[in-house]
Design a protein that fits this description.
The chain is an alpha+beta fold. It has one domain: Outer membrane efflux proteins (OEP) (Up-down Bundle), CATH 1.20.1600.10. It is built from eleven helices and six strands. The chain has a four-stranded antiparallel sheet, with no helix packed on it. Strands 1-4 form a two-stranded parallel sheet. It starts with a helix and ends in a 41-residue tail after the last helix.
C-alpha cells in the first residue's frame, strides 16, 4: 500500500509542477522601455546575425593572416616495388639484380612567402577593415532595432490610451442609456430618447472592439521584434513628453556625418576595395618563396639496407609576366567597383542631408502641435461636465451633450497621438544623427554650405578617378 501511495504522491507533484510551469510560461510579462530595449539587444534576430558576421570576419582575418606565416607539413610514406621482367636478360647473373625493393621515408616541408608584391599585406589590411565593416553593421542593426522597438513601445501605449478612451466613451453611452430609461420610466422622456441612447451605445461598440484589437496587434508586433516566444507581452509607461531643445541643422548634419554607422560602413568598404586593387594588381607581378625540407629515407634492396638523412632549402622566383592581360582586366573591374562605391557614398550623404531636414521638420511640427493641444483636454472635460449637468436639469439638449463628448474624445485622442508622434520624432532624429542609444559626440567643425550639398567634392568617374599605386605601396 505504501509504494502505491508514494507513486501517487509523486505523480501529483509532477502534475502540479507541470501545471505551474505552463502557468508561468503563459503569464503576461510587463515590460518598461528599458526592459524591452535590453531584451531586443540580446534576442533580436538581426542583431544576432550581425554578431555572427563579426565572428565570420574574425575567421576571415585569421585566414588572410595565414598567408604571411610559414606553412609546414609532414610527409611519411612507404613503398614496395617488385619487377622480374628483365631476369631473362641476365641469365646466370640474374641473382645479382634483385627483383624487389622497399623504400621508407619521412620529411617535414616548410614554405614561407618572402616577397609577394604587397599581396599578403594588402589582404591582411583588407581583413582588418572587414572588422570595421562588421562593427558598423552591428551598430546599424542595434540602432535600427532600438528605433523600431521604441516606436512599437510607444505605439502600444497609444493603442492602450485610445482603447481606454473608446471604452470610456462606451461606458458614458451606457450611462446615458440608463438615464434615459429611468426618465422614460418616470414619464419625463420619450421612446425617441431611449432609442437614440441605445443607438449611440451600439455605434460606440465597434470603436471599442477595434481599439482593443489594435492593442493586441501592437503587442504582437513588439513580441516579434523582441523574438519573445514563451510569454505574452505588455508594457507599462507613459506618453508624457518633456519638450527639449532641438539641435540646429548644421550641428545635426555634422553629427550625422561623424556617427552614422551605415555611412561609416560605406567608407570602410571603400578602404577594403583599395586593398583589393593591390591584391589584384599583384596577379602578374613576381613573387619569391622560401622552401625547405628535412627528413630521412631508407632503402631495402635484397640483402642491402641503406638509410640516411636528406634536406633541401632554396628560394623560388615565379613571374607570370604575361597572362593575356587578365590581371589588367581584373584591376579595371576592381577600380570601377571602388569608384561606384564612392559615388554611392556621396549619394548617401546627400540623402542623409535631406532625411535629416525632414526629421528636424517632423520634430518641430510635433512640438508645435503638442504645445497647441496643451490644456485642451481639461477644457473639453469641463465642457462635458457642464453639458451633462445642464442635460440633467433640462437646460441642455442631448445633441449638446454628444457634441461635448465627441470633443472630449477627440481632444484626448489628439493629445495622445501628438505625444506619441513627438516621442517617435525625437527617436527618429537621434537615429538619423547616428547617436541613438549612444553617447552624443561633439559635432565636426565643418558646416555644410546648404541642405543638399555634400561635404566632399564630386569625384571623376573614369580611369583617372583612382590614383595609381606605385611599387613602394605594394
Amino acid at each position: 500500500m505504501r509504494p502505491r501511495t508514494m507513486t501517487l504522491a509523486l505523480v501529483i507533484v509532477i502534475l502540479l509542477a507541470a501545471q505551474a510551469a505552463r502557468a508561468e510560461e503563459g503569464a503576461i510579462r510587463v515590460l518598461t522601455l528599458s526592459d524591452a530595449l535590453t531584451i531586443a539587444m540580446d534576442q533580436n534576430r538581426d542583431i544576432l546575425k550581425a554578431r555572427e558576421y563579426q565572428k565570420w570576419m574574425r575567421g576571415k582575418y585569421i585566414e588572410e593572416r595565414a598567408g604571411a606565416l610559414p606553412q609546414a607539413s609532414l610527409t611519411v610514406y612507404g613503398t614496395h616495388a617488385y619487377d622480374d621482367s628483365q631476369q631473362e636478360l641476365f641469365g646466370d647473373f640474374a641473382d645479382i639484380f634483385p627483383t624487389s625493393q622497399n623504400i621508407f621515408a619521412g620529411q617535414v616541408n616548410v614554405s614561407q612567402p618572402v616577397y609577394t608584391w604587397g599581396k599578403v599585406g594588402a589582404a591582411i589590411r583588407a581583413a582588418r577593415f572587414g572588422f570595421e565593416v562588421a562593427d558598423d553593421q552591428l551598430r546599424q542593426f542595434q540602432q535600427a532595432v532600438r528605433r523600431d522597438v521604441t516606436a512599437s513601445f510607444y505605439g502600444i501605449l497609444l493603442a492602450k490610451e485610445l482603447d481606454r478612451i473608446a471604452k470610456q466613451n462606451l461606458d458614458q453611452k451606457k450611462r446615458h442609456l440608463e438615464e434615459a430609461q429611468k426618465k422614460y420610466t418616470l414619464g419625463v422622456a420619450t421612446d425617441y430618447d431611449v432609442l437614440a441612447a441605445r443607438v449611440a451605445v451600439d455605434n460606440a461598440r465597434p470603436e471599442a472592439i477595434r481599439s482593443e484589437n489594435l492593442v493586441r496587434v501592437a503587442r504582437e508586433r513588439l513580441k516579434f521584434m523582441l523574438a519573445e516566444q514563451k510569454n505574452d507581452l505588455d508594457v507599462t509607461g507613459s506618453l508624457e513628453a518633456e519638450i527639449s531643445p532641438v539641435p540646429d541643422y548644421g550641428t545635426a548634419l555634422s553629427t550625422a556625418y561623424q556617427n552614422r554607422p551605415d555611412l561609416s560602413d560605406l567608407e570602410h568598404k571603400t578602404a577594403v576595395y583599395r586593398e583589393l586593387i593591390k591584391i589584384t594588381n599583384a596577379g602578374d607581378k613576381p613573387r619569391v618563396d622560401f622552401n625547405a625540407s628535412y627528413g630521412a629515407r631508407r632503402f631495402l634492396v635484397g640483402d642491402i639496407d641503406s638509410k640516411g638523412r636528406l634536406w633541401s632549402a632554396g628560394l623560388a622566383l615565379s613571374f607570370p609576366f604575361f597572362d593575356g592581360m587578365r590581371t589588367r582586366g581584373q584591376v579595371m573591374q576592381t577600380r570601377s567597383d571602388m569608384t561606384t562605391l564612392q559615388i554611392e557614398t556621396l549619394k548617401f550623404k546627400d540623402s542623409i542631408a535631406l532625411e535629416l531636414q525632414i526629421a528636424l521638420d517632423a520634430v518641430n511640427e510635433s512640438t508645435e502641435i503638442l504645445k497647441a493641444l496643451a490644456g485642451t483636454v481639461e477644457q473639453a472635460e469641463r465642457l462635458l461636465q457642464m453639458a451633462e449637468k445642464g442635460y440633467e436639469f433640462g437646460v441642455k439638449t442631448k445633441l449638446e451633450v454628444d457634441d461635448a463628448q465627441l470633443n472630449l474624445n477627440s481632444a484626448r485622442g489628439n493629445l495622445a497621438r501628438a505625444r506619441r508622434e513627438y516621442l517617435v520624432a525625437r527617436v527618429n532624429l537621434e537615429w538619423f544623427m547616428g547617436i541613438l542609444g549612444e553617447s552624443e559626440k561633439a559635432a565636426a567643425p565643418v558646416t555644410p554650405k546648404s541642405k543638399h550639398t555634400s561635404l566632399e567634392s564630386p569625384i571623376k568617374v573614369g580611369a583617372d578617378s583612382v590614383p595609381e599605386w606605385d611599387a613602394s605601396s605594394r
